[in-house]
Write a structure and sequence with these properties.
The complex is a heterodimer of chains A (145) and B (391). By secondary structure, chain A is of the alpha+beta class. Chain A folds into two domains: 33 residues; 96 residues, Rieske [2Fe-2S] iron-sulphur domain (Rieske Iron-sulfur Protein, 3-layer Sandwich). Helix content of chain A is 24%, strand content 30%. In chain A, the strands form two sheets. Chain A has a six-stranded antiparallel β-sheet, with no helix packed on it. Chain B has two domains: 331 residues, Cytochrome Bc1 Complex, Chain C (Up-down Bundle); 32 residues, no CATH class. Helix content of chain B is 61%, strand content 4%. The radius of gyration of chain B is 24 Å and the shape is globular. Classes of the chains: A alpha+beta (145), B mainly alpha (391). The structure holds protoporphyrin IX containing FE (HEM) and FE2/S2 (inorganic) cluster.
Chain lengths: 145, 391
């Protein structure tokens, strides 16, 4: 016994071996725990959401709804419907549609976007991303592109 | 301070109480350096506040419900129905603010007195960790009432997390428990706020106090040249310092109750994920970072902004390793004191600009509108007053 534990190479090997085994055991315990913390996806991929009362909107008016948990603004234009993400790319506040000026305005740090979602002024690093709009008879549906 | 006689007899006849008794006795009657005075109570103040937060937090937990449908209602129930519920909610909310203030003053004291120097580097480092975790405490607690301001402040706050280089998107997704702030976020913040942080902080505080006792308090002498003061010149922890702490405890209760009555925190409107209210701002202790982020724009702006906000905390954490000078007296440390003052003034100015940004304020009879970056422009006297929000 005494001889074994004082042999430096053997001892070093055992230290490394025990270290590796513990690391593998630790990983076995930790990985499922970390995966548990990662949110499991919710909602289908191509979710289509109906715009309630879409046809009652007059040109220049808007409606807000959620597609896969994300806020989307549907705007009635002179020719039809367009939809843009309402989430400001700056820090995530929801932009409002200003029907008279035909602009999107963010209440948080005053980012302004034109009617196509392009940045006009303010701190937003990018445009509002568009959503797909589908008209079926009297109904209007919005889905992610 | 001794246990009652019957309890001592009971324990002594069963255990060897020698070790425990000597330990308690030594700690209670420990001699502190002769200059220990009122400036040295901010640590105790922070500890008292942590204890108060724990007690009021547990009381709130009895009626609080961490779901989007019930959270706001349950806070309303606490403040309007539960006996003295309003008081506990107010003391908890004000306690959070005062705890951060207490910790800040404690850090200022130890920084300018050079107490962080050898052999107390680890005491300082655990202290900075306690400070940062306390701000996380505040951030997670703020969401729990699930009102408009909290919901949107959390949306903006977690959006900033997405700008952290490389891991930002992942970080934001795990913090929110999904793409947006939802009930999943509330659950996560709740668990962090009432289980994880209380225990982590309890552990860190225990280590901090142990280290503080192991090295005793610092004097103002040069590192490594401390003179050994004779026992009888030291200030006895009990009763002299404990008496000061008692005074502070009484004052603290008075201040907490006064603030709770005269300036109560509102409950606000319930969170509405489809409507952002105007003037979303974080709590005052996040205002300096919030404002600093605004000066970094363009393609690499967010990246640089996050770096600019992290550097001060990195410096703070590693400061004892960076400043290895032997002097403790502030007059002999012009560089450290200068940097400290610049940091303090910088944080205060940024905080103030963050506070007024986007609002209209009057100074000496003239009205000014402050841009998001905090630059003022004069407003004509006859212009209608701006909506400055209700808070
Ligand atoms: C140690 C144990 C703690 C527990 C069990 C606890 C528990 C709770 C609970 C249940 C709430 C929701 C009720 C409410 O919002 O009024 C809450 C809110 C809050 N907590 Fe804590 N807390 C603890 C410590 C702390 C600490 C150390 C801080 C900060 C430094 C803090 C800051 C806050 C804040 C800012 C709120 C929101 C207050 C409000 O708007 O009413 N808490 N906490
Ligand atoms: S979040 Fe929209 S401008 Fe900042």
């Amino acid at each position: 016994m005494k001889e074994q534990s004082t042999d430096p190479t053997r001892r070093g090997f055992l230290d490394v071996f025990i270290g590796i085994c513990s690391a593998i055991m630790g990983a076995f315990v930790a990985i499922p725990g970390l995966m548990y913390l990662w949110p499991a996806a919710k909602g289908g991929a191509g979710e289509e959401v109906e715009v309630k009362g879409a046809k009652n909107l007059s040109a220049g008016e808007s409606n807000i709804l959620q597609v896969k948990g994300k806020a989307v603004l549907v705007v009635r234009t002179n020719s039809g419907f367009e939809a843009y993400s309402a989430i400001c790319p700056h820090l995530g506040c929801l932009v409002k549609w200003e029907g008279v000026k035909r602009e999107f305005l963010c209440p948080c740090h005053a980012a302004v976007f034109d009617s196509k979602g392009q940045v006009l002024s303010g701190p937003s690093p990018g445009p509002l991303s568009p959503y797909k709009v589908k008209e079926v008879g009297e109904k209007v549906f919005v889905s992610a592109v | 301070m001794n246990a009652p006689g019957w309890m001592q007899r009971y324990l002594n006849s069963r255990y060897n109480m020698e070790v425990a008794n000597t330990f308690v006795d030594k700690q209670m009657h420990k001699r502190l350096p002769p200059h220990t005075g009122w400036l040295h109570i901010f640590g105790s103040l922070s500890l008292l506040l942590f204890i108060s937060q724990t007690i009021t937090g547990i009381l709130l937990l009895i009626y609080y419900r961490p779901t989007p449908d019930e959270a706001h209602e349950s806070i309303k129930y606490i403040t309007t129905q539960a006996h003295f519920g309003w008081l506990y909610r107010q003391v908890h909310a004000w306690g959070a603010t005062l705890m951060i203030l207490g910790l800040t003053l404690h850090m200022i004291r130890t920084y300018f007195m050079g107490s962080y120097k050898k052999p107390r580097e680890l005491t300082w480092i655990t202290g900075v960790m306690i400070f940062v975790l306390t701000t996380v405490f505040g951030f997670t607690g703020y969401l729990l009432p699930w009102n408009q301001i909290a919901f949107w402040a959390t949306t903006v706050g977690t959006e900033s997390a997405a700008k952290v280089p490389y891991i930002g998107g992942w970080l934001q997704y795990s913090l929110r428990g999904g793409d947006a702030v939802t009930g999943e976020t509330l659950s996560r913040f709740f668990v962090v706020h009432v289980i994880i942080l209380p225990w982590v902080l309890t552990g860190l505080i225990a280590v901090h106090l142990f280290l503080m006792r192991a090295t005793n308090l610092a004097t103002m002498e040069r590192v490594g040249e401390e003179k050994k003061t004779p026992e009888e010149c030291g200030i006895p922890f009990f009763p002299v310092h404990v008496a000061k702490e008692g005074v502070i405890a009484v004052l603290l209760i008075a201040v907490l109750v006064t603030l709770s009555v005269l300036s109560p925190w509102e409950i606000g409107l319930p969170a509405d994920p489809l409507n952002t209210p105007p003037h979303i701002k974080p709590e005052w202790y996040f205002l300096p970072s919030y404002q600093l982020l605004k000066y970094f724009q363009g393609p690499y702006g967010a990246f640089m902004g996050i770096i600019a906000c992290s550097v001060p905390f990195g410096l703070l954490l590693l400061w004892p390793m960076l400043d290895r000078g032997k002097e403790r007296h502030p007059r002999k440390r012009p560089l450290a004191v200068g940097l400290g003052l610049i940091g303090l003034i910088g944080a205060l100015s940024l905080g103030y600009l963050g506070h007024v940004s986007g609002l209209e304020k009057s100074y000496f009879g003239a009205r000014y509108h402050f841009s998001e970056k905090g630059w003022p422009t004069r407003v004509a006297d006859d212009a209608p007053p701006a909506d400055n929000g209700g808070h």
